[in-house]
DNA sequence: ACCATCAATATTGCATTCAATTTTTGATTC
DNA sequence: GAATCAAAAATTGAATGCAATATTGATGGT
């Protein structure tokens, strides 16, 4: 057994600072832990449905269980983990249904963002997005999927930012995090045949944005996300078929 | 020194049943406390910007600080409370800007709900909503504001439920809770002159729903919420003017 | 061999304790 | 009498302790 010794302030400080490159004004261990644990999970360090080892993570982060458990409750409310009474926390496994729902909500949020962006976006911001659009087109022509994907995400992000709605931005970010795990978990890539279609959709997005046609952009963005949804669900079921992992949340013991 | 008041299971169960999001058989003190504290705050038992007395609430709920503090972190992530480092938790005071943002997000979620509802709603559900609509019209004719308001909320709830998207439903509920505080805090009532307009909007909502015109319903619902937004912001600024309370979040000490 | 049973062990949920702040109080000075 | 400041008290953030609950592993019966 370990002999717990009262820790003097100096050593506590040392433990806290381990692994931290930024001396940010993060005052609370809770906030720090929350961000670190969320990243840890979103980046896929724990497999889908995998148990979250409290004690181990405490040692890893150099903290006690209290702030870690607080972070777990928050992540559970965000939908990233499941909390099983007396049986610990597990990384939430998304079913196909979950994924469809999540993409539809993302679609709704982007549709809203597009609508609001048309009300608030500046010419300068549109020019920015146009630049990104042509950069993305370049990646498309060169068949550079990772580059395309990165800029694509950036364009959507810029539209949400142009909505001038911090609440929407935060909500969008939270949902994006829940979906992002999937991308890390495997080489999530749009089917080739859909790629050209997506590129054309982006043309119409840019066009509606230029004309500041809110209703129209709203519809286009929702449908665009529906296409992404189809690709994601397809990807998930293929991945499940390959590994034999269940895709439904119905856990009958 | 401490007079802990043990709570019998029956009473806690009763309080829990007020909760919306987690209708499961809550075993954990954390989940129980979360629901209770959320209701306590949403119902306006603590004034806007007011300090949340940890110790007092612990005694009130008959629990220790650990589960209460866990609940506070979750409520902070939901946007209901602010966590000030070393200075405790406070009920989040909504600025006019916050309120505008919240109503726009609600508008986006309802617009999405309307779109999805048109894909999934059954004839039976439409008939249900029609019935509610005419019931609401009755309240309108009798100038029964509370009755109107209650059924109005119910109609919107039914549309969100008809979307068949549990994620959307939960998110909608969470945002509704953040706004609901305002309603409790004062006699939030739509201006008379806008009442007729709102009633007409509901006619078009029902019409679009009957025709299952998703794009159209989506637009109508967003605009409908924009009207509500205007009323809410107006109400907030009037209330602020009356009490002399600040409406902005900029807290310069 | 296979499966049930039960003790040993580990983990969880919450309470309690402790150090570090912040807030309040009360004396003191101008 | 108002302003200032130090000591006391209260409050907060986090660590640790402990009972209750799961999980594991050994044992014995079929």
From TrEMBL, chains A, B:
SUPFAM superfamilies noted in UniProt: GntR ligand-binding domain-like (SSF48008), Winged helix' DNA-binding domain (SSF46785)
GO molecular function: DNA binding; DNA-binding transcription factor activity
InterPro entries listed in its UniProt record: GntR_C (IPR011711), TF_FadR/GntR_C (IPR008920), Tscrpt_reg_HTH_GntR (IPR000524), WH-like_DNA-bd_sf (IPR036388), WH_DNA-bd_sf (IPR036390)
Keywords associated with the record: DNA-binding, Transcription, Transcription regulation
Protein's recorded name: GntR family transcriptional regulator
Pfam families registered for this protein in UniProt: FCD, GntR
High-level lineage: Bacteria, Pseudomonadati, Pseudomonadota, Alphaproteobacteria, Hyphomicrobiales
Region entry Disordered, spans: 1-22
Organism: Bradyrhizobium betae
Domain HTH gntR-type: 27-94
């Amino acid at each position: 057994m370990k002999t717990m010794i009262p820790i003097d302030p100096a050593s506590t400080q040392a433990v806290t600072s381990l692994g931290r490159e930024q001396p940010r004004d993060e005052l609370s261990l809770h906030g720090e832990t929350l961000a670190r644990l969320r990243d840890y999970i979103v980046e896929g360090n724990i497999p889908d449905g995998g148990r979250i080892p409290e004690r181990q993570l405490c040692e890893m982060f150099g903290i006690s269980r209290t702030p870690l458990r607080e972070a777990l409750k928050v992540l559970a409310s965000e939908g990233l983990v499941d909390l099983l009474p007396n049986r610990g926390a597990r990384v939430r496994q998304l079913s196909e249904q979950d994924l469809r729902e999540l993409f539809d909500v993302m679609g709704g949020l982007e549709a809203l963002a597009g609508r609001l962006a048309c009300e608030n976006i500046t010419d300068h911001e549109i020019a920015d997005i146009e630049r990104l659009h042509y950069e993305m087109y370049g990646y498309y022509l060169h068949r550079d999927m990772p580059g395309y994907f990165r800029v694509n995400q950036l364009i959507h992000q810029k539209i949400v930012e142009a909505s001038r709605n911090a609440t929407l931005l935060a909500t969008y970010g939270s949902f994006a995090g829940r979906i992002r795990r999937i991308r890390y978990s495997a080489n999530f890539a749009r089917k080739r045949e859909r790629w050209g279609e997506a590129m054309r959709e982006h043309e119409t997005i840019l066009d509606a944005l230029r004309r500041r046609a809110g209703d129209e952009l709203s519809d286009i963005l929702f449908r665009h996300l529906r296409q992404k949804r189809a690709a994601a669900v397809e990807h998930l079921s293929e991945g499940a078929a390959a590994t034999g992992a269940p895709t439904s949340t119905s856990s009958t013991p």
